[in-house]
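Hi C.,

You asked whether I'd gotten around to modeling the 277-residue construct. I have! Everything is below, sequence then structure, no commentary in between.
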Amino acid sequence: MEKLTIGQMAKLNHISEQTLRFYDKIRLLEPDVINRETGYRYYSIKQSAYLDMIQYMKSLGMDLKDIKKHLELGDPSLVKSVLRQKSLQIDEEIRRLKYQKRAIERTLQSYQRYEASPPDGTIVLEYIEERYLYCIDAGMNFYDYGIEIYEEMLRKLKESLISDKLPQIYFCNAGTILRRQNLERRRFYSSEIFVLVDRDVVPEELTVTIPANTYLCIYCNKFEKEKGYIETLLNAVKEKGYRIVGDYICEVISEFPLLERKERGMFLRLQIPIKFY
């Protein structure tokens, strides 16, 4: 049969001449004939079957080293082993992308909530569905210090996430917890910091469940206002005759850098779970 030039062979198989030259260089697919006088290389159309196999195995995720080994040995067990490993890698990538998609959706929801939130200082009643928290005790009272201590607490939270081998996509929209007994006594002590997580991703023993409930909330646009706004919420609880039924939660709805102050800016939703008498 007529021999094919490298250009004809490349065009026939929808690959580049450069690829064919590389395959020749690594001895994965060498030309069928080499003219010793001119140095021209010629392929046989029958070698297209070999190229088909190479391209098929590449599409399965095999690298050229494994493809070459398989084609030389003709051992199906090698392909099976490589494909099993590739299947596991794909599963892990799907899992990673699933986490990433959830994180993006959660962030979008946070920005949408921020845009739809009432003005700073507004008190509202809100029903909030069940949530799952990954929470640590950072060992320092958040309310005794400024934003610097909050940043230190966040570092400890991040280290804990890494230690527990949890996806770093959860390191956003953090918050703090003020336990009910301290809240009712107006004792500002909170050393616990959390991030919201998914129950089907984070092991149950690492999560804290916050039950669905009606919350008396106030929105806050500055870190420094929180303690005063907690007092405002507690006064509203007393005036309305509500009953506190759980811990106070400060949830970061949205974060943005304050470039002029070189620190973290936050829009907060301060929440007290209540029941009606």
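If it helps when you're writing up: Residues 149 and 175 are 13 Å apart (CA to CA).

Thanks,
B.
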